[in-house]
Amino acid sequence: MHGNIAPRSCLRNVVSDRRPPDQVSSASPERCHETDRTLLALMPSLGGAVADKMRPETMPAQQVLSNNISTLLVRRPLAAYFAIAFTISWAGAFLVAAPHLMHHEPLPRITGILMFPAMLLGPSFTGIFLTRIIDGRDGVRDLSSRMFRPRFPTRWYLAFLIPPVLVLTVLFVLKTYVSPSYAPNFFLMGILFAVPAGYLEEIGWMGYAFPKMCLHSNALAASTLLGLLWGVWHLPVIDYLGTATPHGADWFPFFLVFTAAMTAMRVLICWIYTNVKSVLMAQLMHVSSTGSLVMFGAPGVTSQQEVLWYGVYATVLWFAVAVVVKIFSKRFTP
Hints:
Distance between the termini: 69 Å
Structural class: mainly alpha
Radius of gyration: 32 Å
Largest sheet: none
Helix content: over 70%
Mean pLDDT: 84
Strand content: under 5%
Shape: globular
Oligomer: single chain
């Protein structure tokens, strides 16, 4: 029975033939096999044509460029992150300052303050963008989940007291034994400046960069390097951080002590993150750190005095890091 059934390709020819039934001739097996052989002979050439279209030299230039960029991002996820984040942030700061720079005017203090919000887009946008490109939708969902984990043991919330306690302690000691100029401020509304900084920056620093850095080194080394890069990231606005602004000739010493303090704080933030795996907790610790400096920073100091108290603060922070590493070293792993 099966020997009398025409091959499938021949049946398609018969069915697709729109001539009246009385004009349709039955397809002979020989004719069917001949047609099949013809189609099979054409398939390699058709496949070659498709393959030719997929070759880089025959693809549209935009598609080739897009594929090359995607490949580079996947191969160098950390280098890509820092390059894009720094470029966006520093370009944003430059655009804010450009009208004054073009007229060779000194930057007003308000311009220096406005440069900082313009920089926040760099870490946040780049973190989300590269997470989507490199880790896909699952990566974006994972990032979102790490940003909304509010329930942890109470002891981890106590860590948020470290920045304000240390800032106030340093300033009160300097006020008592060095100069009344170190009297702390109590500008409680300053916390509002810290919220966008902490929330937006940590999407990139802890949501994207730190976990990938830990794939290549231990958490302590990764957090230290990230802290140094974090300090350098502030470079365009360094002359407008603190209260004795602009710092004039003391801007570079201030940059050094500021970076030392921020690196130590970054290690503490990373220590919290490695234990709770929560970007939200890192964001809150960042808010506590920045908020403490804005709310309590001594308003009556000179630029040299500000360098001194930031240097003392950095030293105390590194002492706190040493305690954390000594006591909680087993927990300081990703």
